[in-house]
Amino acid sequence: MTSPLWAAPFRPDPVDATVSLPGSKSQTNRALILSALADGPSRLTRPLVSRDTTLMADALRALGTGIDGDEDAWTVTPGAWGGRQEPVRIDVGLAGTVMRFVPPVAALVDGDVEIDGDEYARQRPMATTISSLRALGVTIDDAGRGTMPFTVRGAGHVLGGPITIDASASSQFLSALLLVGARYDDGIDVRHDGPPVPSATHVQMTLTELRRRGVTVTESADRWVVAPGPVAAYDTTIEPDLSNAGAFVAGALVTGGRVRVRHWPRDTDQAGDRWREIARAFGADVGIDGDDLVVSAPDTLSGVSLDLRDEGELTPVVAAVAATASGVSTLTGIAHLRGHETDRLAAITAEITRMGGEVDEHPDGLTIHPRPLHGAELQTYADHRMAHAAAVLGLAVKDVRVHDVATTAKTYPGFEQDWQRFAS
Ligand SMILES: O=C(O)C1=C[C@@H](OP(=O)(O)O)[C@@H](O)[C@H](O)C1
Ligand SMILES: C=C(OP(=O)(O)O)C(=O)O
């Protein structure tokens, strides 16, 4: 079900706001997976409670994990992996982390686990998940589709060992195997063969989270080795989601304003930390004040030239800012965004064009030209980040109405209310 048309708040003068963000999706879902595989209970403080993380928690519960608590903290109690289990069906929604991270874990139960998701999820790339599990000896029934729905017929354990995959369509194929690898009999030794793996920051986050839990993982060019062994229980506090913070930084940029983002972590693997460099590239003044990030926009935004391969998820909001800049912007390294929640390169091009903007769509990027923009009804394609981009454009340009802003609940329930407050 989609939400009614939303009149995005317009702000003709500079915003000056302070915001606090909900927790990181990528950290929460990694912490859930690793806690479910651990040798004892773990506590997650300030987890993100959103559609993607609820789907992950429900998936792990279906596989025997105990997850209890409230919005402030969850306790994750691992089940006994390897036991016989009745057939279950897992709903992955449109969550890449759930659809790619859960099947290699489902292979550890002795029983059938059906994996399916939203209608559009069936179009997201999944062939590498299916072929890599098959190469590791796991039986998968996908009726020859190479996409969802499919059934993992787990045997209670996975041999693991050496495997070669092509993770160029999504880093999540690689992270998925690394996250579970310690619990495979021989660990996992993954080689990547293909065009570059995107989202290096997310792969780094996977390695950091494994090491925090005592897992031995080594990396060299295009090869990652996880030793078999226990995953230590680990209590963790989830950082604020910096990719979602990007919408607010962008809101300050497009209005010539200022934003203070509370509790910006000093040392983080989050892709959104790149916003510090991105805001500077647009001409902003960016500083750390105590625990906070403070971004002050220039009077006129410069065009930017950015390779976003390692932080592709930032692209829709970066593109929205670029559409309001005074110069041409080029965003490159992002062919893999065509397999995200929607084909984001096509979606960004269509929506900015709808407002009178001009975008050249390339196989692996976008060129965005400075053009006067006008109000329009913007589509969001069940994509939370297209909704954030639409909100940013609506702040800068009068009369923007947005279809299905509620899709932001994928990673940020309450976005609409927080944005309204930010804009007023
Ligand atoms: O591992 C993760 O948490 C993610 C990895 C990235 O996926 P891709 O490599 O498919 O872009 C990113 O875009 C996604 O939002 C989250
Ligand atoms: C690509 C994204 O999500 P997912 O985890 O569904 O791949 C995203 O959040 O931008």
UniProtKB/TrEMBL annotation:
Catalytic activity: 3-phosphoshikimate + phosphoenolpyruvate = 5-O-(1-carboxyvinyl)-3-phosphoshikimate + phosphate
Cellular localization per UniProt: Cytoplasm
Gene Ontology CC: one annotated term: cytoplasm
One GO MF term: 3-phosphoshikimate 1-carboxyvinyltransferase activity
The protein's enzyme class: transferase
Short name of one Pfam family: EPSP_synthase
PROSITE patterns: EPSP_SYNTHASE_1 (PS00104), EPSP_SYNTHASE_2 (PS00885)
Pathway note: Metabolic intermediate biosynthesis; chorismate biosynthesis; chorismate from D-erythrose 4-phosphate and phosphoenolpyruvate: step 6/7
Gene Ontology BP annotations: amino acid biosynthetic process; aromatic amino acid family biosynthetic process; chorismate biosynthetic process
Entry annotation: catalytic residues: 313 (proton acceptor)
Family per similarity comment: Belongs to the EPSP synthase family.
Designated name of the protein: 3-phosphoshikimate 1-carboxyvinyltransferase
